[in-house]
Amino acid sequence: MQTLKVDLGERSYPIHIGEGLLDQPELLAPHIAGRQVAIVTNETVAPLYLERLTRSLAQFSVVPIILPDGESHKNWETLQLIFDGLLTARHDRRTTVVALGGGVVGDMAGFAAACYQRGVDFIQVPTTLLSQVDSSVGGKTGINHPLGKNMVGAFYQPNLVLIDTQTLNTLPARELSAGLAEVIKYGLICDEPFLTWLEDNMDALRGLDQAALTAAIHRSCAAKADVVGADERESGVRATLNLGHTFGHAIETHMGYGVWLHGEAVATGTVMALEMSARLGWISEAERDRAIQLFIRAGLPVVPPVEMSAADFMQHMAVDKKVIDGRMRLVLLRRIGEATVTDDYPQEVLQATLGADYRALAQLKG
């Protein structure tokens, strides 16, 4: 097992990474103050891992709350199911909410914990690669709105992040690839040597090699923990973690939540951010193409939906958390390994980026 720390003073917490951690109750118990525990999971994950986690929490009074699966259910209606479960079981302010699942479960369980009786403890037990390397760390919680992704939520840190890498053995290949989009992101924004490592180890990662996966998760979580420790509420450097997300969230919102997986939309959105960075002269076309090829090797899409026009993108991008005083800020690359957040760019470059021939960039046929 490897352990990292998210350093937030009195609210600091550990990230444990390793095989078989679901079966180690001694890792969970120190982070649970009361007797009551609610495990929030979904219909897909519950049959796989709910019983194991419940056994590890046998000393507590455990209530399972099982949600429908999918990004399309990340809304107010599903959030109410968590409150219904907590209130029906008469959970008090000393309860602990445990999120067992991917990013949707973690975001909603964390938001519910932030709101229930004005805030109760919660623990993240992420079971997808994307949630393990990104959404479970840093305290961003929330739900989607029909007009924009993750526009309703709260910053609310967990007590613990417990990452059992064996849960990836049951993850569909498409979901694994979606998680790799966020892994690649870290190499692009702050760790060029990691990008080289990913190029050397992509086949091993897609083949579920445990050593490679553990190394990638550890390096990704370390990068995010450093950024969150420096900028918890995204007033500065933390916004660079959103490379590709403004374009990607537009894709998710326009196409319908869940049609494109989050990581798929982020991959394509990152390609768009790379294209804009190249058009601004900040990175070379060779650097742009290097990243595109790595996304393709990870099994990810790199071409925006043909259904979306430049006007569609602009409409959705205008409803983004990085828009301040009407100015659309974008995360771009000054160079590989160095991201920046800026609203200082010519509008014609953005329009050219939205209209670029990404099929040609990806060397796709037909």
UniProtKB/TrEMBL annotation:
Q: List the molecular function annotations (GO) for this entry.
A: 3-dehydroquinate synthase activity; metal ion binding; nucleotide binding
Identify the Pfam families for this entry: DHQ_synthase, DHQS_C
Q: What cofactors are annotated for this protein?
A: Co(2+); Zn(2+); NAD(+)
3-dehydroquinate synthase N-terminal domain sequence ranges: 65-177
Location comes to:
Cytoplasm
The record's InterPro entries line, in alphabetical order, gives:
Dehydroquinate_synthase (IPR050071), DHQ_synth_AroB (IPR016037), DHQ_synth_fam (IPR030963), DHQS/DOIS_N (IPR030960), DHQS_C (IPR056179)
Q: Which GO terms describe its biological process?
A: amino acid biosynthetic process; aromatic amino acid family biosynthetic process; chorismate biosynthetic process
**What pathway, per the record?**
Metabolic intermediate biosynthesis; chorismate biosynthesis; chorismate from D-erythrose 4-phosphate and phosphoenolpyruvate: step 2/7
The record's remark on the cofactor is: Binds 1 divalent metal cation per subunit. Can use either Co(2+) or Zn(2+).
Is Lyase among the key words of this record? Answer: yes
Instruction: Write the Enzyme Commission number(s) for this entry.
Output: 4.2.3.4
Q: Which GO terms describe its cellular component?
A: cytoplasm
Catalyses which reaction(s): 7-phospho-2-dehydro-3-deoxy-D-arabino-heptonate = 3-dehydroquinate + phosphate
Q: Which UniProt keywords apply?
A: Amino-acid biosynthesis, Aromatic amino acid biosynthesis, Cobalt, Cytoplasm, Lyase, Metal-binding, NAD, Nucleotide-binding, Zinc
Domain called 3-dehydroquinate synthase C-terminal: residue spans: 179-323
Residues engaged in binding NAD(+): 69-74, 103-107, 127-128, 140, 149, 167-170
Instruction: Specify the enzyme's EC class, one word.
Output: lyase
Q: Which residues bind Zn(2+)?
A: E182, H245, H262
PANTHER family xrefs: 3-DEHYDROQUINATE SYNTHASE, 3-DEHYDROQUINATE SYNTHASE, CHLOROPLASTIC
**Family membership:** Belongs to the sugar phosphate cyclases superfamily. Dehydroquinate synthase family.
Give the function comment from the record: Catalyzes the conversion of 3-deoxy-D-arabino-heptulosonate 7-phosphate (DAHP) to dehydroquinate (DHQ).
Name assigned to this protein:
3-dehydroquinate synthase
| Gene for this chain | aroB
